[in-house]
């Protein structure tokens, strides 16, 4: 590089630095959210645009035990990234994946509302967050960067958590690559599993629907003969909702054992055996699920399990930007 070039560059660098320090910091930049191919548009909140700064604060709080009044736990104490933000040891936990599309939360739909409202419920009602514990200089600086002032409120904490949740998007499994035209992304057995999953013989895709692999609705799939007052029915008081539970997403399902709202199945093989031969009748059994199950052969069951395992998105499970923030 010539001396002149070097001087020009140095002058440019100085000018840039001056420009950055002399202008006021405007509102944080909205994050450019690129969704995986085939995903429905993500519902967003007009009063809570997703920004780099908001996501950084949400991520901090998700992993920060100061969110609980006795400093004992954070969201991540139960919701583990390697398990698609679920846990093997927390009974009946649900994963945190693609929740931005959800409007009813919890297995029985016990909470209905926007993602922001769900996070307010988690922070204020479930955790009982004491904002005094969050009034630390380094956190106040993050609230300032995210919301324009350093004021710390439970509502802002929840809004930041909602922004972080909007980045917890999983759509990078081998199945997605297959759908995008890479025929070699799935083995022959996995491809047979896909065919069965999307067939009228095993009606899986009606409920585990769209690229989200959930319809975000409630169904009785025939786990129990006695369903009175259970599931969605316990929330709505409507007996037609008895025994109906939230359809869980199947994304990363190989990582979210044990299965069902009550963890009754330890493995995917057990789940598929249930669908193949274990479905029992009750007053609200979904018409898509036949009594006695879909009567699948051993080979068909193995193919379905192989397909379910191909829904693992390793990039999501190991993405450093979703992991604990650096200290
Ligand atoms: C003590 C363990 C534990 C901690 C800590 C925890 N959760 Fe959960 N979470 C659960 C369990 C268990 C469920 C499922 C409960 C149910 O459906 O009845 C759940 C479900 C959820 C759901 C509903 C998901 C869906 O698909 O409907 C959301 C949202 C959620 N948690 C957010 C959070 C946030 C945010 C935090 C931190 C503020 C947090 N959780 C901390 C155990 C925990
Ligand atoms: C009528 C809607 C419906 C159909 C059809 C259906 N499912 Fe489900 N699935 C659900 C619901 C609802 C649950 C949760 C039930 C519960 O916990 O009580 C569930 C749970 C599961 C689970 C456990 C996931 C977890 O995280 O606990 C797997 C795996 C699964 N289904 C795969 C399948 C497969 C494979 C098929 C086709 C053979 C299928 N489903 C057909 C609605 C359906």
In short:
This protein is an all-alpha fold and 327 residues long.
Helix content: 25-40%
Strands ordered across the widest β-sheet = 1-2
Between the first and last Cα atoms, what is the distance in angstroms?
39 Å
What summary fits the major beta sheet? 2 strands, antiparallel
Order of helices and strands: HHEEHHHHHHEHEHHH
Give a structural overview.
By secondary structure, the protein is mainly α. It has two domains: 30-170 and 316-322, Cytochrome Bc1 Complex, Chain D, domain 2, CATH 1.10.760; 174-311, Cytochrome Bc1 Complex, Chain D, domain 2, CATH 1.10.760.10. It is built from twelve helices and four strands; from the N terminus they run ααββααααααβαβααα. It has helices at 3-22, 52-62, 115-127, 137-147, 154-166, 174-179, 188-197, 204-207, 232-236, 268-278, 298-309, 314-318, and strands at 104-105, 111-112, 218-219, 245-246. The strands form two sheets. It has a two-stranded antiparallel sheet with strand order 1-2. It is globular, with a radius of gyration of 23 Å. The two termini are 39 Å apart. Residues 6-23 have low confidence and may be disordered. The site of one heme C has 28 residues, from α8, α10 and α11.
Q: Keyphrases for this structure?
A:
two-stranded antiparallel sheet; Cytochrome Bc1 Complex, Chain D, domain 2; binds heme C; 37% helix; 4 strands; 2 domains; two-stranded antiparallel ribbon; mainly alpha; 327 residues
